[in-house]
Structures are given as C-alpha cells and as structure tokens.
Amino acid sequence: MQLSVNGRQIDVGDAFRGHIEESLNDIFGKYFGDAIEATVTMSREGPMYHALVNAHVGRGIQLVVENRADKPYTAFDGAADRLSKRLRRHKRRLRDHHRESNAETIQTMAARQYVLASESGEAEEGESADGQPAVIAEMSHEIPSLTVGEAVMRLDLADLPAMMFRNSAHGGMNMIYRRGDGNIGWIDPQGNSSAK
C-alpha cells in the first residue's frame, strides 16, 4: 500500500507515522487484503486535532473517514475505528466486488461535473452576464454502472451526501442520497424500469 501522511499545523513525527502505518496495515489486512493507496491528513483546529483518512481500496471505491479529538493519537485512533467498522460492515460486498472487477471491467459513462457559485452575498457576484449562476469549476466525472446495493456501499464508504449511478438492472440513471433522518433515499425516475 502506498501511504502518504501529511500534517497541517502539526509535526507528524516518525513514531506517529509508524503508528499510523501499522494501524492501517492491520485494518486493511484483516478486512480487505491490500488497499492501493491511502492518505492521512492530520491537522490542528484550535484546541482540537482532526484526522482525515482517504483510502483508494479498489477501482472506483474510495473510503473516507474523519475524527476530531483533543490529542493527535486519539483523533487518528477514532478515525481508524470508524474505518474498521465500515470495512467490517461491507467486507463481503468488497470481496465480491474485487473478484468481479478482476473478472470483468466495470462499465462507466463519461459525464461533466460543474461547481456553481452559491447564491449567498451579492446577486451580481455569483451570476454570469445572462443572469444564470456562474460556473466556478468544470471537471470530468465517471458515472458507474452498479446495483443499488453497490451504490449504497460506495456512498457509505466514501461518506458522500449523494451519488448518481447507472442502475445495472435496467440501465437507467438513478440517484441515492443521505436523508436528514440518516436513512438512504433512492431516486429511480419513472419509466426507467422499462428502459434498456
């Protein structure tokens, strides 16, 4: 596993770096096998320490966890516990996905992703000349073809608020999102069940 440990307003020494590497190797070895790469960012926010772990565990599968605590070791260990719980919850699906991704290539669809200016502040500031919201950034994005269960797993692992995917059961575009009550919402536009 390729590991990168970064510190923002904090010095990450060799002992702490070794603790992080040993913990992540134990977790990935126990639940998944071997992650491709992981980035750990430790930062200080006032009196608290913030640990952010971003791991690439397979093709198209990102795992993001974070934790805050009053000590750096406690902050990282809390994030490592969350990582372990998520991997344990999705262990079977990840192993099945890993076998499937080695046997066949996963279908994806190219799309464009845009970041629009928020509507807060001056109206002229966040609008283009024609009154539409200003485009701040434009990026390419891939929309994977997944089952609903695989999409929910990826949403949970990456701690995303929402995710668009092509439903592999019928080929239509679907959306899942995290609701305010903590449950997952699923949007399957009418007519997609007969599409193909």
Can you walk me through this structure?
α1 runs parallel beside α2. By secondary structure, the chain is α+β, with helices and mostly antiparallel strands. Helices cover 31% and strands 37% of the residues. The chain has helices at residues 14-31, 72-89, 91-103, 148-158, and strands at 2-8, 37-45, 48-58, 61-69, 108-116, 135-146, 162-167, 173-178, 184-187. The longest helix has 18 residues, at 14-31. The chain is built from four helices and nine strands; from the N terminus they run βαβββααββαβββ. It folds into two domains: 2-99, Ribosome hibernation promotion factor-like (Double Stranded RNA Binding Domain, 2-Layer Sandwich); 107-194, Sigma 54 modulation/S30EA ribosomal protein, C-terminal domain (SHC Adaptor Protein), CATH 3.30.505.50. The strands form two sheets. It has a five-stranded mixed sheet with strand order 5-6-7-8-9. Strands 1-2-3-4 form a four-stranded mixed sheet.
